[in-house]
Design goal:
By secondary structure, the chain is of the alpha+beta class. It has a single domain, classed as Heat Shock Protein 90 (2-Layer Sandwich). The protein contains four helices and five strands; from the N terminus they run βααββααββ. The protein has a five-stranded antiparallel sheet, with helices on one face. Helix 1 packs antiparallel against helix 2 and helix 2 packs antiparallel against helix 4.
């Protein structure tokens, strides 16, 4: 069974917690462990913060989130896509390097992608300079729910 959700919201710091809660509520249907849910929320926070700080450089825009929950007899997974239509990333590999930041004057640690990669099973970054960026994160879930029909 597969289920999806989409939302969009202004790319403002105040909405970072909104994004966490929306994705967590959607993920809950897969009955993740509390640890899995915390990891998903942290990864979403990092991705949305990147949209606000780096994608739009704090100048505003729209953040887009799409989620897909999949459950079968043998597995459960959540895929989260966080997209902006901002500046894009010139060098994705450099941006994924721990401690690198495109905002060295700010209070950024340069660990966003590293955190996403630590808490999610797969992280893919697609970006075009001047067009925007999409981060696709997938988490394989090992929670305890027996009824996985989303009904």
């Amino acid at each position: 069974m597969k289920d999806t959700m989409k939302c969009e919201f202004p790319a403002k710091s105040i909405n970072e917690s909104f994004a966490r809660v929306v994705v967590a509520a959607f993920a809950a249907r897969l009955d993740p462990t509390l640890e899995e849910l915390a990891e998903i929320k942290t990864a979403v926070s990092e991705a949305v913060t990147n949209v606000i700080i780096h994608g739009y450089k704090g100048m505003g825009g729209i953040a887009y989130i799409e989620c897909e929950a999949k459950a079968s007899e043998n597995s459960k997974s959540l895929t989260v896509r966080v997209t902006d239509k901002g500046r894009g990333i010139e060098d994705i590999e450099l941006a994924r390097t721990p401690l690198y930041t495109s905002n060295p004057d700010g209070e950024r640690s340069g660990m966003g992608f590293t955190v996403m990669e630590t808490f999610m099973d797969e992280v893919e970054v697609k970006s075009l300079p001047g067009v925007g960026t999409t981060v696709v994160m997938t988490k394989i879930l090992h929670g305890t729910r027996e009824d996985e029909s989303f009904e």
